[in-house]
Specification:
heterotrimer, A mainly alpha, B mainly alpha, C mainly alpha, B: two-stranded antiparallel ribbon, C: mainly alpha, 11 helices, globular
């Protein structure tokens, strides 16, 4: 039982991750894929930040009144990962806009149909 | 001072050059600048390899903070070799870029193309040289984003969808790698690869580490286009500008193979990866599938760039096959093929670039008719590259296949050796299609009939020359590959 | 759910909620970044994309069996992984041993700023942050290439301004200086509290984006032109990497700030200041540039549509 209580937060996050992952691979609409990708990535971030938490710890800003700090390293990594994620998203969305201009649609099936007719 | 900081400079020089190139508005100037930077980068790689071969592993602490608290650049024979491959291709392909890019990319976007090229070079070099797992992720994304950008500059609108598909798959792969690295950190408290290799043996048995291994290998496999995760590759190579295809085809997947080697052998270790986890069997199976499906599908392609792309999928299969043996000979074959394939495919795609330059748009089998007469030098390059793909003696392709067969026979695996030879036969079929069209058929009516300009031919022939030279005088490449293979298998204390 | 607008909004809420979660996990810097970058910028860009593409999804044809299978396998692998993981918030977990304690214990003396995350981000692992800035630069470059409209865009009036709304105009004019000031505060106070270059850059950009939304793209571009933005994008990266080169020239390793001043701790302060400034400049320029490119595309489309 303690196993479940100790790990349930990880499982919730994993569920969120899988929702995002599913959206990316199952849907044909490109914007939805990008949203799914973001949900997937954000959930990964949540997983790692929860790893950094130390019981009764405080935010890692040096202060004389604090004895226990939460781990700053995951914070740094996830900060970087968030920024990388938004960079990828911006690029993906720009591609979607151009695809829409060229093909008139952002649904994968429509695009496949148009390409095959060539 | 320069020699001491060489590892940092390897990445910092192109990194500084990229934003600087944004200032240069004229395409010709941007091209010359990029060429200069890529040549300087090449010299740095040569020097690094020389240092490593004579002095052993180089360790460099970024920011002056000793690892694992700071980020470490760690150069040994394996990645010095990979750095060299990337910078050779980076410089030689850039030679042809001046004319090729001018033809294929809209004029106002040309200088920006060169910035993206420099960024990609930075990213790939950064991946190869770093000793920190998270730093690897960051530079992986740098190279990936700039690849997506370069691909999307292709003339055909399908380059956009190709870039998007690559983006989605590539980001999933990168996120898997991030998950893997995070799981490892969770269990060891460190991100430094050397440090991880010291700390993992104690917790080898845990399910978390097994899972981390799985996520890392799947993520890396997406990036190296291992069957069946190769789906992004054919479109990306086909519709990108010729310079981008030549550069990416010869470097990006090789660097991904290096990342696989680094994680599997250095971080996790041979015993874990091949004895506790069934990596050898899975890789071997997927590699063989890649060789057969890649070569077979290539035979039926009408678009020649796409044919070569599927051929690349097959060639990656050969590399992975060698690695899956986990013996010195097998690894030597795999690492050797990293270099050899870069030479061959780089040359072939540059030659295709010559043809695109004259014919424009998508090159079909039809367009090859009579090319033997109208573009003799280009076609000769295609034939030479094709012979190398097949594995004819006196070419680099032969050397890699030789070691691969040797490695298979060492283990007593006759069927595998036979399958490697059958793969070569399949390559004969699609190369013959090209040769037949070029030399035994008359040109189409209305086909333009001029040879490609020197600036495109020279780099092509430089790489063809390399693939013949290193096919005859194999000492240098084979010895480096062997040292690298040995270091990978003996690292475990 | 096929209304994409609703989906994007829900995603924005998810992002904001995760930022709140980060705060409760003591990850204040991350929360600030997620709120600004994740909930803010990403949502804005997605809405911009929707404006340029379509608002609803079409019915999909293929079945969900294979993706479902892949997702189940992946999820199972992750849950399998958690079974041997240390329990949540366990202070003895391996993640908190070995590397992290030195940051917590020594950064006060070695670097001398209270925000440990900034110490690690800008100094100990500064090279990663340089990589991150290059990633942002790449994204800015990419959007410039994909959506940049060449040539003269000085039309007489942008079709979409909201200038005629008096209330919006007044509020915008009073808010923008406050936003800019807040951004500067975040930039330079990042050593002492949550904040730093990324968050500050995004907030700074937000002020310009707000102006652009209300007063139109042309007016905004007259204040800060695409050419200036291009220059700033590059300048930030050069400032950051240049600081590293300076350290090299002064005798240290690349990005070793100890050598930047007469005493190492001072050097660290100088280095972090410069580096964070470089980050702020590039992030601001890229965010504004990306937004301008998306808007510009919309304007260009409407212009040609009219003709």
């Amino acid at each position: 039982m303690t196993t479940v209580l100790g790990l349930y937060n990880y499982w919730v996050v994993i569920f969120l991750m899988m929702v995002g992952f599913y959206i990316v691979i199952a849907h044909g609409n490109m914007v939805k894929k990008v949203v799914g990708l973001n949900i997937f990535q954000t959930s990964v971030f949540i997983l790692y930040i929860s790893v950094g938490k130390v019981r009764d710890g405080a935010a890692p800003i040096l202060d004389d009144t604090v004895t226990v700090y939460s781990n700053p390293l995951p914070h740094v990594l996830i900060l970087t990962a968030i920024v990388v994620g938004v960079a990828t998203t911006a690029l993906a969305l720009a591609l979607i806009v151009r695809i829409r201009e060229s093909y008139g649609s952002i649904e994968e099936e429509d695009i496949h149909r148009q390409d095959e007719s060539l | 001072m320069i020699t001491a900081n060489l590892p940092a400079l390897q990445v910092v020089i192109p990194l500084l050059a990229a934003p600087l190139s944004l200032v240069l508005r004229r395409p010709g100037l941007a091209w010359l600048f990029t060429l200069l930077i890529s040549i300087i980068t090449l010299f740095v790689s040569l020097e690094l390899l020389r240092q490593v071969l004579s002095g052993g592993v180089i360790s460099y602490a970024m920011g002056g903070w000793e690892p694992p608290w700071g980020i470490e650049y760690r150069v040994d024979t394996v990645n010095a070799f990979v750095l060299l491959i990337v910078s050779i291709i980076g410089a030689v392909v850039m030679l042809s870029a001046g004319e090729s890019v001018a033809r294929e990319v809209p004029e106002d976007k040309q200088p920006l193309f060169y910035t993206a090229y420099l960024l990609c070079l930075t990213g790939l070099l950064g991946i190869a040289i770093t000793g920190d797992a998270f730093n690897l992720f960051v530079f992986l994304e740098i190279s990936s984003l700039s690849s997506y950008i370069m691909i999307s500059l292709g003339q055909d609108r399908r380059s956009l969808t190709a870039a998007f598909q690559y983006l989605i798959m590539g980001t999933i792969g990168a996120t898997f790698i991030l998950i893997g690295v995070g799981l490892l950190y969770m269990m060891t408290g460190t991100l430094n690869m050397h440090d991880l290799s010291q700390r993992l043996p104690a917790i080898m048995e845990t399910r978390t580490v097994h899972s981390a291994f799985a996520f890392l290998t799947v993520g890396i496999s997406i990036k190296l286009a291992l069957f069946p995760l190769h789906l992004w590759l054919p479109n990306a190579y086909t519709y990108a500008p010729s310079v981008a295809t030549a550069f990416l085809a010869a470097t990006a997947t090789k660097v991904a193979v290096y990342v696989l080697l680094r994680f599997v052998f250095t971080v996790f270790g041979v015993e874990f990866a091949f004895e506790m986890m069934p990596l050898g069997e899975i890789l071997m199976l997927l590699a063989l599938l890649a060789i057969f499906s890649g070569s077979t599908v290539a035979i039926f392609q009408d678009n020649i760039k796409r044919m070569m792309a599927y051929s690349s999928v097959a060639q990656i299969g050969y590399m992975i096959l060698g690695i899956s043996f986990a013996t010195v000979t097998g690894l030597t074959a795999g690492i050797l093929h990293l270099f050899n394939h870069a030479m061959m495919k780089g040359a072939l795609f540059l030659a295709l670039g010559c043809i695109v330059y004259r014919i424009g748009g998508n090159v079909r089998l039809d367009d090859f008719r009579g090319l033997g007469k109208t573009m003799p030098w280009t076609m000769a390059a295609v034939v030479a590259g094709g012979l190398s793909l097949i594995g004819v003696p006196l070419t680099v392709g032969f050397v890699s296949k030789w070691y691969l067969v040797l490695a298979a026979l060492e283990q007593g695996w006759w069927p595998i050796a036979v399958m490697v030879l059958v793969g070569s036969l399949l390559a004969v079929v699609y190369i013959w299609k090209l040769v037949e069209a070029a030399y035994f058929q008359a040109p189409k009516e209305g086909a333009s009939g001029a040879e490609a300009p020197l600036s495109l031919l020279i780099p092509t022939w430089l790489l063809i020359g390399a693939s013949v030279y290193f096919g005859i005088d194999t000492d240098l490449t084979v010895s480096v590959a062997q040292i690298a293979a040995q270091s990978l298998l003996e690292v475990r204390p | 759910m096929r209304d994409l607008f609703a989906i994007v909004m829900l995603f924005g809420i998810y992002s904001l909620l995760s930022a709140g979660f980060f705060v409760s996990m003591d990850a204040v810097d991350v929360a600030l970044t997620e709120a600004a970058v994740g909930a803010g910028i990403t949502t804005v860009l997605m809405l911009g994309t929707l404006a340029l593409t379509a608002r609803t999804e079409k019915r999909k044809g293929h079945g969900p069996l294979l993706p479902l299978l892949v997702v189940i396998v992946t999820g199972a692998a992750l849950i399998y992984a958690t079974l041997d993981m240390p329990y949540f918030a366990d202070p003895d977990a391996p993640a908190h041993q070995h590397v992290a304690p030195r940051y917590i214990q020594e950064s006060g003396t070695e670097i001398g700023i209270p925000n440990i995350v900034t110490s690690v981000l800008a100094s100990y692992r500064g090279f990663d942050t340089l990589g991150e800035v290059v990633v942002i630069f790449a994204a800015g470059l990419g959007v410039l290439i994909l959506l940049g409209v060449a040539g003269d865009r000085r039309h007489d009036a942008s079709p979409s301004t909201m200038q005629h709304h008096l209330v919006l105009r007044v509020i915008t004019k009073s808010l923008i200086p406050l936003i800019l000031l807040y951004a500067l505060y975040i930039q330079f106070h990042g050593d002492y509290g949550p904040g730093g270059g990324f968050q500050a850059g995004v907030i700074f950009a937000a002020a310009f984006i707000l102006y652009s939304i209300i007063y139109g793209l042309n007016s905004a571009e007259r204040i800060i032109s695409p050419a200036v933005l291009r220059f700033l994008m590059a300048a930030g990266v050069l400032i950051f990497s240049g600081t590293g080169v300076a350290a090299l020239l002064l005798g240290g390793n690349y990005l070793d700030y100890d050598f930047l001043a007469h005493d190492p701790v001072h050097g660290q302060h100088v280095g972090i200041l410069l580096v964070e400034f470089g980050v702020g400049v590039t992030v601001t320029a890229v965010m504004i540039s990306v937004f301008f490119n998306f808007s510009g595309r919309s304007n260009a489309r409407q212009e040609t549509g009219k003709q």
